[in-house]
Specification:
There is one protein chain. The protein has 396 residues and is of the alpha/beta class. It contains 16 helices and 14 strands.
């Protein structure tokens, strides 16, 4: 069965979204499905070619050669958003042409609605079932800094369009139960959960969990305000004043990076070390440099409904995970079973968790249980079989 995945961004971009797409299509390929990817006009490729082959999977490019419109984490001004929206017409034509060549059995659109609209229109036209995969409440991101009428109305517009797309898709897939509940509250019933997972074949099995002294702490992922890394820097400032020498490594880049660097300098913190962006094929080197992964996400509607990939990846690399007790983390971690949870936004609670590890060392039982949890319950090979079942039901 051939699946045409219509995505907003993909590799070579490195983000939670592109990594999930990579893992989906690789796992589907491995269980006998035939995935093909087409990316939006705002995603460039490895070369100038309109077709990349990544992990033996076709990736069609529809890039419109406008570097200013490329996918980025920072918010796009309204006038540019309006201009970018017109690209949906050329995108539709290019996807239609690819569809005529590839003749897929299923159209699988991945958020945002830019991809969903094209998939739904083409699906109706050619009588092909449409799956729409939703990974986040995009409108919630827009509410940050919405301090005037224009900015306040944008989240409502996005919510309306997203909801209409979900209603018109033959199946909606979300990444966790909290997100399913939110969408169900909108009156949408054709929803199924396929959780975040790990591609175990990509994990470097040579990394063990023998601890170093002193313990090395760290974070790997996007550097955005929601991740709560400013709490880490404030805590390290306090601990260093008490002769704390353990290091904290931050691997990643993003919209909040400069603010964190400035905060570190202003507080005179020495042992928080920024390592910059790490490519997906070098991620094992980052994990080798860290004993304990900390994910201190702040409390928000987004963090309560979105489950991150990196804590699962850390478990697969046999690293102890400390995380804030927001909803998205609690879907992955049971406190003192496969990780350690602390009260979100609480410097004191995070300090207690860290100092207990510094005093007692790593809890290898938690690490072992976390590894078993990932391998038995959170693998992409298992998820691929779930997609296969969904696709077959849509074709009957």
């Amino acid at each position: 069965m051939k699946i045409l995945h219509i995505v907003y961004q993909s590799l070579p971009n490195i983000s939670g979204s592109s990594i999930r797409t990579r893992d989906i299509v690789m796992a589907q390929r491995d269980v006998g499905l035939n995935p093909v990817v087409v990316s939006s006009p705002f995603q460039n490729g490895i070369s100038d070619s309109e077709l990349d082959i990544i992990n033996d999977i076709k990736h069609y490019r529809t890039y419109n050669n406008k570097p200013d419109y490329l996918v980025k984490e920072s918010k796009t001004p309204l006038n540019k958003r309006i201009l970018k929206s017109f690209a949906i017409f050329s995108f539709y034509k290019k996807v239609k042409l690819i569809l005529s060549v590839e003749k897929p059995d299923i159209l699988h659109a991945h958020a945002t609605f830019f991809c969903a609209i094209v998939a739904i229109v083409l699906g109706r036209k050619f009588k092909i079932p449409v799956v729409y995969e939703v990974r986040s409440l995009w409108e919630e991101r827009e509410k940050n800094g919405a301090n005037n009428y224009i900015k306040k109305i944008q989240p409502k517009i996005i919510s309306y369009i997203e909801t209409e797309c979900m209603k018109r898709a033959d199946k909606v897939i979300v990444i966790n139960e909290n997100l399913r509940q939110n969408i169900s509250d909108r009156g949408i019933r054709n929803v199924e959960v396929i959780t975040n997972a790990v591609s175990l074949s990509l994990i470097d099995k040579t990394i063990d969990y023998n601890q170093t002294f002193p313990l090395r702490f760290g974070y790997i992922g996007s550097v955005s305000p929601i991740e709560g890394l400013d709490l880490i820097i404030k805590l390290w400032a306090k601990l260093e004043s008490e002769e704390f020498t353990n290091k904290f490594y931050i691997y990643g880049s993003g919209t909040f990076l400069n603010e964190l660097i400035n905060l570190k300098e202003n507080l005179g913190v020495k042992n928080v070390i920024f390592k910059g962006r790490v490519e997906s094929d070098k991620i094992n080197l980052a994990f080798k440099n860290i004993d304990v992964i900390i994910n201190p996400r702040i409390k928000s509607k987004i963090s309560d409904t979105v489950t991150p990939l990196k804590p699962l990846e850390a478990m697969a690399y046999k690293k102890l995970v400390i995380a804030s007790d927001v909803g998205g983390m609690k879907e992955l971690i049971t406190d003192n079973f496969n990780g350690i949870l602390f009260k979100s936004d609480s410097l004191e609670a995070l300090e207690r968790s860290i100092m207990q590890l510094v005093k007692n060392g790593l809890d290898f039982k938690i690490i072992s249980q976390a590894y078993k949890y990932v391998t038995e319950n959170r693998s992409w090979s298992n998820n691929a079989k779930k997609y296969d079942i969904i696709y077959k039901k849509l074709k009957t």
